[in-house]
Amino acid sequence: MLKKHSQLFESLLFISDLVIIAVSWIISYYFRFYGEVIRVEKGIPDFYIYCLLLVPIMIIWGFAFKGFGLYRPKRIGSHLSEVFDITKACVVSVLILISLTFFFRQYEFSRLVFLFFLLINIFALSLERWIFRDVLRYLRRKGYNLRFAVIVGSGEPAAALIKRLERHPEVGIKLEGLICTEKADVGKSIAGVRFLDVYTNIRNFIIKRRIDNVFIALPWEEHSKVVDVLSAIGDEAVDIKVIPDVYEFMTLRGGVEELDGMPILNLQNSPLYGWNLILKRSADILFAGSAIVVLSPFMLLISLIIKLTSRGPVLYRQERMGIGGDTFLILKFRSMKMDAEASTGAVWASENDPRRTRLGAFLRSTSLDELPQLFNVLKGDMSLVGPRPERPVFIQEFRKNIPKYMLRHKMKSGITGWAQVNGWRGNTDIKKRIEHDIFYIENWSFIFDLKILCLTLWKGLVNRNAY
């Protein structure tokens, strides 16, 4: 019955997608030629010609969406990941469609129609999926469209899975109980869930309880029993998922990838790849370039005052460590006297530091000395948002005393960051700063970057720890 329901939902979603795709194509045509947004100079083409493309559009989009796995059951998954899959499928489909129209030489199709179609398609399909998934999740919270599951295993992996399933009733997985590997454990419980049987009897348990999902969550020392559990399940038509006991080894954005059908477990990874990298870099160039244009008169004024009030260059260059451990020269407005570290060596700036110039004290307390770093962002050494870069001379000491310190270099350094907007900047607790930096990298998203930029502007550039 559950498989029939799954096929029914898949069919409804497929039909709904095709309707939205067709409507998006028609809207794109009318928006381009009748929307009066962009002037039509070559006359309005026959609508019938554009309707003829609906047949290949339906075929291309159908295969693309199947290929990108957009009709697989997604009880466990995020809205955002589905939006990314929709975007990739739509971009590939539009490129194929444009290539196909090359063979229709007797007709000239508007490139703007294709662009509007792509944007409307992504928005409409994402909204439709969002509503569809939320309706299903609401029904599952109410006890409909459930799948029944059992967990094989004990210890931390099983306990962690139980807690997550309890926190997310919207996934519609009802836990029937636990299966243990030792007969002596039958009757005991973990996180309020009892062990009902031993794994050698799991096949009868699956048939009797009509189980749909089996989660194998064995502790590390019992992973060798996975083969025995699979043998005991036999050819029962259940979904089998393995929860590897490797959380203690996962340090940064761990996850699973696939290489030609082979699953690969990532214990440590950077969030910046593919579209994420392009999106973040594009935003850096756009915002940094705009800020330089707007603030250039103010930066010229600061440069002039520095030159008139103290001896030495306007800009100060200092070696810092960036992404991947590579070093670069960070730019700042000079706020200290010439050769400020000649007698002390590399030291942190302190409150009422006598090395500061009169203007430098103001520049540092308001963070205006960091404005030239906008040029570092344009060059690609830094990003607008990210962990603040440190000097290599300090890093050697930090990495000796602070576990996982170097993980912050999996992300490009930033002018501002999650640690800074939470007050952890300057000569403050370095461990707290690292905690915030790691949290930022693990939870990075473009929206998170925008939030940090807004908090930076909202809280102001003045900070009591900026000396």
What does the model show?
- By secondary structure, this protein is α/β, with parallel strands linked by helices.
- The protein has 3 domains: 2-141, no CATH class; 147-249, NAD(P)-binding Rossmann-like Domain (Rossmann fold), CATH 3.40.50.720; 274-459, no CATH class.
- 49% of the residues lie in helices and 13% in strands.
- The protein is built from 15 helices and 12 strands.
- The strands form 4 sheets. Strands 3-4-2-1-5-6 form a 6-stranded mixed beta sheet, with helices on both faces. Strands 7-8 form a two-stranded antiparallel sheet. A two-stranded antiparallel sheet has the order 9-10.
- A hairpin with a 5-residue loop joins strand 9 (315-321) and strand 10.
- The protein starts with a helix and ends in an 8-residue tail after the last helix.
- Give me the secondary-structure category: alpha/beta
Poorly predicted sequence stretches spanning 5 or more consecutive residues: 1-5
Mean pLDDT, to the nearest integer, reads: 81
Strand arrangement, major sheet: 3-4-2-1-5-6
Tally of discrete structural domains: 3
- Helix count, per DSSP? 15
Radius of gyration over alpha carbons? 29 Å
Tell me, what's the shape?
A: flat
- Give the H and E element order: HHHHHEHEEEHEHEEEHEEHHEHEHHH
- Approximate helicity band: 40-55%
Largest sheet: 6 strands, mixed
